[in-house]
From TrEMBL:
Domain Actin-like protein N-terminal: 8-164
Signal peptide coordinates: none
Protein name: ParM/StbA family protein
Gene3D superfamilies in UniProt: 3.30.420.40
Domain Actin homologue MreB-like C-terminal: residue ranges: 181-305
Originating organism: Ammonifex degensii
Amino acid sequence: MPERRAVAADVGYGYTKAVSTSGKRACFPSVVAPAVEDPLAGALSGGPGHRVQVRRLNGEIDEKLVGEAALRSLAAVTTLSREKPREMHDWLVLAAAYLCGVGGGGVFPGQADLAVGLPLAYYRSQKEALAERLKRLAAWVSVDGGEERYISFNRVLVLPQGAGAVAACPEMLPEEGLVGVVDVGQYTTDYLLLEIGSGKPVPVLDCCGSAEVGVHLIHRIVAAEFQAKTGAPLPVEMREGVIKTRKITFNGRTVDLYAAVEKAIFDAAQAVSQRVLGAWGNRAGFVRAVLLVGGGSVLLKDHLEKCLPGVAVPEDPVYANAVGFLKALAGC
């Protein structure tokens, strides 16, 4: 029987990030859409994203687009609800696991160990149900026409968002005192306050939680400004590109959104910092360092450095949670 692998998946509202013990990584938008037949029969490149085929143990076969490919579909499924739709979450986990090298073929393909995260606000109420569901998840999976591999999970570890960053970056933590973790995602920002003594971080429970603020605030503000200037809605799949370039071509002319994007980033950073500092209360002034992670940290870093004490950003803040989850899984 082949050696069992382990994979950690940080399934966010915006992006799914995953790492495995094989050293492989995957990152793609947390979007799923029905697969459609290519009318060009492959004459042009399929572009970014993935076509995922799942063959369940009852013989049922289904195929969907995942990631960037799904974003371009009018039938794309994403969510901002507290609990991600079960089927959508399963497709994201299976795709991430496959892309990270998990799974096997043959008569005895083996199982993998899995670690996933949940926002702090939903962790207590959802962790057990999520773990049990993922333990039952099993299917033969193929991505982009690759080999079919059987994926199922032996151990499933569910951890709170933000906690992974602590395990991933111990060298960035002070030896003692208060340290914060702020994980800025698409829809939620998770924050922790830890007291470190004897080298071990202990959470200050009444200062840990989730706030429904994140990168989606920037998308919403920029989309509203685009509509005010053009009278047309800005498609969801184009918003990230507009935020990067600060402009877009519409009806043959360039729509300048530089000022709107800059203001949106500032406003989002203010919203995040106010919620975090409000939750930390009178302890905020005693925080020695704040570990800033998550996909939103890249956009908000410059502004949050002015609002939060001692901000430190890991070399790869997007994968920080997934890397920490994998370390936690190895330590079980």
